[in-house]
Design brief:
5-stranded antiparallel sheet, 80 residues, 10% helix, 5 strands, SH3 type barrels, mainly beta
Length: 80
């Protein structure tokens, strides 16, 4: 299953090379990593400092850092 499939079915902004914050469950605090690829509906993510990419569910304990909301629309009218 492709990255596009992951984005569509899990409604996440996953993309190859995208940065994520993984909250994890080891109690040592969040870790940051890079999405390497999609694999069978899961993401392969290499956490910073690791030499390998682990398998992560796209919606569990991940925050997508590159997915910033669009800036607010600014008007030319100045209110005082």
């Amino acid at each position: 299953m492709s990255m596009e499939w992951v984005r569509k079915n899990y409604r996440v902004p996953a993309k190859r090379g995208g940065r994520v914050e993984y909250a994890g469950d080891n109690g040592s605090g969040p870790r940051f990593g890079t999405i390497i690829r999609a694999d069978s509906g899961r993401l392969r993510i290499r956490l910073d400092g690791d030499n390998w990419a682990g398998i992560y569910h796209p919606t569990w304990a991940l925050r997508y850092l590159d997915a910033s909301p669009p800036p607010p629309v600014q008007s030319d009218v100045c209110s005082k």
